[in-house]
Each structure stands twice: as structure tokens, then as C-alpha cells.
Amino acid sequence: MRSDRAATLQDIADRLGVSRSTASFAITGRGRVSEEMRRRVQEVAAELGYRPNTVARNLRGARTGMIALRLPPDSTAMSYYMEATFGIVEEADRAGMIVFMLPTEQRPEGVDQLPADAVIALDPALDDPVVHLLLSGRVPVITGEPVPEGMPSPRGEVTSDHEPAVRELMDHLHQRGMAHPAIVLPDLQSHWAFTVRDVFAAWCAEQGIRPRVVTLPHPAAPEVIHGAVADLLREQDHPVDAILSVSDGTVLSVVTSAQSLGRRVGEDLLVAAFVDSEVLALAQPSITAIDLHPREFGRRCVRAALAAIDAAAAGDDRVVRELVPVAVQRRDSTRGPVAR
């Protein structure tokens, strides 16, 4: 039973038999604390009803206690960014921080005056003037994925391990009979989009396969995706036997279009996505995809932001870097031809 006295960090430390600083590091995401210790501290904090004294801490450190979040334009309907945002908010709450979201159509004016201790910018794009200004400003910026070449460097970056996952997916498709793949790309100028395209092209070159690359506007209407799929499946020489979609939303339209054109997805046409979501696991057929663990990715962004805030206060200009592993989820859409 809880007493009327508010729980303190010392109460948590005493319960676990650790130092107060270890409990503090585990709560705030700072310092070198194992994931197991972080989990145990958070469990005890929840049990005791501990809440960080954000106001006192911020007054001592002349901070706002807030993190600004910048999502790419036209991203709010994409499940990946929604899940990553949940992870950001959850981890920030554990550290006693508040997250506020910048409008996706934010004008550049005034971004250098944000009342925030740090900014998290997911998938910064080369053609986004707001991100350019944020990276050149006074507030530490942590990017979810590295900045493309030609942009100012951030104070920290969290990266998904894309290349080995893309190669694993391509090898899987090849083992299932793929000989003539095509990739459907959104017209995005982000590190993630560039990496997926480049790894796809490199894999095809290594296999002696001509890569088919279709670039569509982002976001693309279903009829535009249908037209692209129809064009790919209409080819007579070396007909396409696998279509890879960068986004989870686009891949659903790819499957629907292919089925309407008489193809049996998972049998005479393999289909996969470079981003996973719950919907893809429930689709008919279920769709193979790369799970980027977006909630964990968001949590890592907050931890990197907290580390960058502390580093900036200490005059340390080292870049904080985190690498998040990803996993290929193999499902029915790439099972290959079925014996009849």
C-alpha cells in the first residue's frame, strides 16, 4: 500500500538496492544503464507511483522540459510514423518530458525560436527547408535516420539497420523463384528511400539482373499505383515476377491491383514491403515485410535526445548515435509457386 508521501528516486533505489544515480539514469534514459535495469527501475517506479519533479529539474537546469517532434510532410496517415510517435511520447513521459508536434506544413519562419530542449526529426528530407533551419539552429536536433548528403549534421542520429534487412529480403525472394523484380518507390529525398533504392540496385547488379524502378509521387493515389502495376505486368520480355513496395500503404494497393489483373499473389507474383504494419499481417494474403520496430525506434530517439541535451550542457560536441536492428517477417505473399 502506498503512503501519502510522494515516492522519490531514493525510494526506488532502496527497493532495488542500487545507487540513486543508477535509478535516475534509468528513469531519464541517460548514462550507461542496461535495458534490464531500466525495465526493473521503471516497474518499481510505476508500482510506487513515482513521478519526476519536472518543474524543479528544469528550473535548476534552465530548461523547458519539452521536446519538439518534426514528422515529414504527408506522413501523418502512415502507420510507421504513428507508432514511432507513440514510442517517443511514452519514453519522454518516463523521463518527465513533454512532446509537442510541429505542423507537417510548418513554415520556416520562427523555427529557430522553438521553446524546446531538443528536436527529433524523423526521416529528414533533403528538400525540407524547415529541417535545414532546425539543423542550423541553437537547439540540439536528433534525426530518426541520418540526414542525406548536403544537409547540416545533427547532434544525434538513430538509424535502422536497413542494408542487411533489404539484402535478406531480396535473397528470400530469390530463393522463392524471383528472377525479374521491380521496386515501387515514393518520390522522397530521405536517407531511408535512397538506401532502399541503392541496396536494391546493388543486389540486382550482383545477380546480373536488370532492376526495374518505378518512382511515384508521394502520396500516390490508388489509381496511380494501379496504372504502374498494370504497366509492369504488361511487359512481355522478362515479365516481372516480384514487386517490392517501399511503404506499407502502397503495397496494399499493389496487391489489390495485381489481383484485379488476374495474378495470384504469393504464387505467380511475389509481393513484399520494406515497412511492416499490423494490417499487412492480417491482409489476404498476409504480406512479407521488414519490421522496423517503430516504437522502439521512437524510444531510442528520445534517449538520444536526452543524451544530446546533457552533452550540449557539458560542452561536449560529440554526435550521439544509435543503431536499431530490424527483422524480415516472411508471410504468404512470398511463399512461391504451389504444386498443383
TrEMBL record:
UniProt cross-references to SMART domains, sorted A to Z: HTH_LACI (SM00354)
Organism name: Microbacterium capsulatum
GO molecular-function terms, A-Z: DNA binding
Ranges of residues in domain HTH lacI-type: 7-61
Alphabetized UniProt keyword annotations: DNA-binding, Transcription, Transcription regulation
Source organism superkingdom: Bacteria
Name this protein carries in UniProt: LacI family DNA-binding transcriptional regulator
